[in-house]
Amino acid sequence: MRTKDFIREIANRSELTIADSGKFYDALCDILEDRIIAGEDVAFRGLFTIMVKDTPARTVKCGFDGKVHDIPARKTVTYKTSPTLKKKLIAE
């Protein structure tokens, strides 16, 4: 499903117009982006949780040329499916 399809689906399942559904989608994306950048977890109960995790700095040895490289610490975004959704997927 692409963004355009998602916006149409919102309009079909609600009383919103496609234009209003697009505004809703944009606002939702802005909120998610703001919360993720702030380092907060975002949970949609029954669906999924988006989590921000810190990955520590590390040193790795390249298997190709044998050189040692330092990889800096960084933040990563991970996704966890809710148990409810997992059960529904398994049931199908």
Please give the structural blueprint.
Elements: H1 3-13, H2 18-37, E1 42-44, E2 48-55, E3 58-61, E4 68-71, E5 74-81, H3 83-91
Antiparallel strand pairs: 1-2, 2-5, 3-4
Superfamily at the CATH H level of the largest domain?
A: IHF-like DNA-binding proteins
How many helical stretches? Answer: 3
Question: How many strands?
Answer: 5
Kindly report the spatial arrangement of strands forming the biggest sheet: 1-2-5
Report the uncertain regions: none
Globally, the shape reads: elongated
Give an account of the 3D structure.
- The structure is a single chain.
- With 92 residues, this protein is an alpha+beta fold.
- Helices cover 43% and strands 29% of the residues.
- It contains 3 helices and 5 strands.
- The protein has helices at 3-13, 18-37, 83-91, and strands at residues 42-44, 48-55, 58-61, 68-71, 74-81.
- The chain has a 3-stranded antiparallel β-sheet.
- Strand 1 (42-44) and strand 2 form a beta hairpin.
- Helix 1 packs across helix 2 (18-37).
What are its keywords?
alpha+beta, HU Protein, Chain A, two-stranded antiparallel ribbon, 5 strands, elongated
What would you say about this model in short?
This protein has 92 residues and is of the alpha+beta class. 43% of the residues lie in helices and 29% in strands.
